Amino acid sequence: MTIATPTHDDTAPAPAVPADRPDGCPFSPPPAYEDAHRGTGPISRVTLWDGAPCWLVTGHAQVRSVLGDSRFSADARHPGFPFLSPGRRELLDRTTPTFIRLDDPEHARQRRMLTGDFIVKRIEAMRPEIQRLVDAALDTMVAQGSPADLVDAYALPVPSLVICHLLGVPYADHAFFQSRSRALLDLTGSVETVRSAQQELIGYLTDLAGRKQREPDDSLLGRLVRRPDTNLAETAATGLLLLVAGHETTANMTALGTLALLRHPGQADRLRAEPALVKGAVEELLRYLTVVHLGVPRVASEDVELAGTTVRAGEGVLCMLSTANRDELVFTGGDRLDVTRDARRHFAFGFGVHQCLGQPLARVELQIALETLLRRLPGLRLAVPFDDLRYRTGMVVYGVEELPVAW
Length: 407
Known about the structure:
With 407 residues, the chain is of the alpha+beta class. The protein has helices at 31-40, 60-67, 86-94, 106-112, 120-124, 127-144, 150-155, 157-167, 174-185, 191-214, 220-224, 232-263, 265-273, 278-289, 321-324, 359-376, and strands at 43-47, 53-57, 72-73, 148-149, 296-300, 304-306, 309-311, 316-319, 381-382, 404-406.
C-alpha cells in the first residue's frame, strides 16, 4: 500500500464505515479502506451509520500523528466524537468514563492507578502460572478428543482465567461475563441489548467491589476500591473495561492467529523448528491480523493540519490500525505473513498516551498459547472446510466464531 497525494472531492459520495471484508480473505482489511488510501491518500471522507461525516486515516505516519497529538481528543463526551453504532453511543450515556475515553489529566490519574499491575517485570513473573493454565486447557481439550472448537476449549478459557485472577473476579461466573461482554461489543445489537448487558455487568462488578471493600483482598479490584482517590462507581467501570478487554482481545487473537498459521503451514513449521522466533511471530501476527479492526476514534479539539488536509475542530477521525499496519512505506510486502519480519512498529495496541495498558500481558499470553499449541499438537489441522468458517465482522474485536480443529 502506497501513499498518494490527497485529492478530496467534496461532491463525491463518501463511503460508509464499517465496510465489508473481501470474500475468502478473512485476514485482509476491507478493500474500501485501502481503495480510499490509494485514491485520495492517507486521509479521506467517510460516512458513519447515522450519516455523520468523519475522516478516515489510513497511513502509518498519519495514524501515528493523530494518536500522538493531544489536539485529537479521546473523550467520547466531546461534540463530534465518532461512534460506530447506536449501542456504542448508549454506553457513553450510561457508563462512568474510564481512562481510554478521557484526556489528560484525568486520563493519567486513572491510568496511574493500574500501571503497576501491568508492568513488564510483574507480567513476566506470571509466565509459569500462565504456562500452567495453558497446559491444563490443552490437556482438557485433548482428553475430550478430536475434533474440538479451539475457541471454546482453548482460546477463550486461558485469558479469562488470567484476567479473573488479576481482578479478583470468580471464574465460576465466566459464562455470565463472557455473554454480556459479547453483547457489549456487538455493533449489530440493539440499544436495549447493549443497555441491559452494561447494566448487568456494572451491577455485578459494583457488588463485587463492595464486598472487597468490606472484606479486603490483594486483587486489583480489592486494592483499587480501597484507594482514597477513587470510588465504587469508578472502580466498577474500570473493572468492566479490564474484564472485557482482558479476555476478548487475547482470545480472538489466539484463535485467529492459529487459523492464520494453519493457512500458512510453512510459517507454522518455521516456528516449530525455531521456537525462539515466537516473540517476533506474535508481533507479526498482531500486525497482520489487527483484531481492533474498526478503527480508533478521536475528535479534533481544534483545527489541525493532517496530510495536507485541515481537520476542523469538532470533526471526528477514525484511525484505521489495520491499513496502517500494512502500509508499504513501513512494512514491505505488508499483505504477506512473515514470522521472521521485524514488526515492532505495528499499531495493534494503538500508540501514544492511550496505548493499550495490558499489552505486556497480551504478549505473554499469546507467546505461550501459540508456542505450546504448535509444539504439543504438530498435526493440528482444520476439521471443517476453510470456506465454512464464520467471522466476527460485526464486533468491535474481530475474530473467528468457532474454530473446529483436529490433530
